[in-house]
Design brief:
2 copies of one chain form a homodimer.
Chain A lengths: L1 H10 L1 E3 L3 E3 L7 E2 L1 H14 L7 E5 L4 H11 L3 E4 L10 E8 L4 E8 L8 E9 L3 H13 L2 E11 L4 H7 L4 E9 L6 E2 L2
Parallel strand pairs in A: 4-5, 4-8, 8-9, 9-10
Antiparallel strand pairs in A: 1-2, 6-7, 10-11
């Protein structure tokens, strides 16, 4: 997605340790017009798939997911990283965050993830893929079916994308970062 | 907003202790078409105001805020409830959650909240108003200006709305819940 790649090269910032910050337009401050274009591209990439619900995980997956749901007129559900004490019929799993070096639990109400649901999962980043695998686990627990996973940015030098594709998941990433070595952003053509 | 009121009466569920659950269409599973209509109504309510940025707080404020930003072609920034270790120029404040009975910190990067910014704040719920007041504090710290605050649902039997209006804030709530006594949802006409 050329528009996104150009924006990452223009406004993304690279820090030692393979950190790419896109907090001026994706995951802290957000550009809603870009977010709509991102959603259109997800619609295009998953045009051949049959799904009835969009799923994401709080917080920065919500903006692209709601835009995809808006374009396709489908409900959107987001997994939560804290267990609200009022959640009914909770499904939960544990995710290890490399970035934060800790475990956290991710949960969703079974009320909104059902057998028969065909899920398109959307998130902002795919790096080690642990949050994505946690959400896959919730989908399995619910008896729902995962149709595909779309990410705004994938870091191909981290193992998440390879792991998901080896499991047979249809993964679509709109910008694939091949390297951040020497704090230079290298995006796949 | 009639559409919203009807939906709350139809799909909202009331629990002892003044709890209103709208998790099937607002803050866990979300209806993106309703969310767009909600955003249109916010645009209408704040049509006379001059603002250049939309602010919200994660997680359930993000969906209505990004829709408002999309309609008006304005950037959207969300305050975070956890401090990412990579956040630069961080402003933070402490918020007491009555629902969860604990203190938490809310933060935002000064990079995206500047002197001269005129902010429309959007969130899903206004009850005690502590998260909203925390965000007001961040806006003051940044030297920005708060133009108005829009909430999808206000519980008028809790003190948040009164407190904000007493401070001179222009508050617009799209559905005002006057009582949840005896687990019956009473919405202001």
């Amino acid at each position: 997605m050329e528009l996104l790649k150009r924006r990452i090269l223009q406004d993304g910032r690279c820090f030692p340790g393979g950190i790419l910050k896109v907090d001026s337009f994706i995951n802290h401050q957000m550009d809603p017009i870009l977010m709509k274009s991102i959603a259109v591209e997800f619609v295009r990439r998953f045009a051949g798939q049959d799904f009835n619900k969009v799923m994401t995980i709080e917080a920065s997956g919500i903006a692209p997911a709601i835009m995809v749901g808006y374009l396709l007129e489908l409900p959107v559900v987001f997994a939560k990283k804290k267990q609200p004490k009022t959640m009914e019929n909770m499904l939960s799993t544990t995710v290890h965050s490399f970035t934060k070096d800790r475990e956290y639990s991710v949960c969703i109400s079974h009320d909104f993830l059902n057998p028969g649901d065909r899920i398109l999962f959307i998130d902002d980043f795919l790096a080690n893929g642990n949050a994505a695998q946690g959400c896959m686990d919730l989908i399995v627990q619910a008896g729902a079916e995962l149709v595909g996973m779309g990410f705004i940015i994938e870091k191909s030098f981290q193992p998440g994308g390879k792991r998901l594709r080896e499991k047979g998941v249809k993964v679509e990433s709109l910008a694939i970062i091949e390297s951040l070595d020497n704090c230079k952003i290298q995006i796949r053509d």
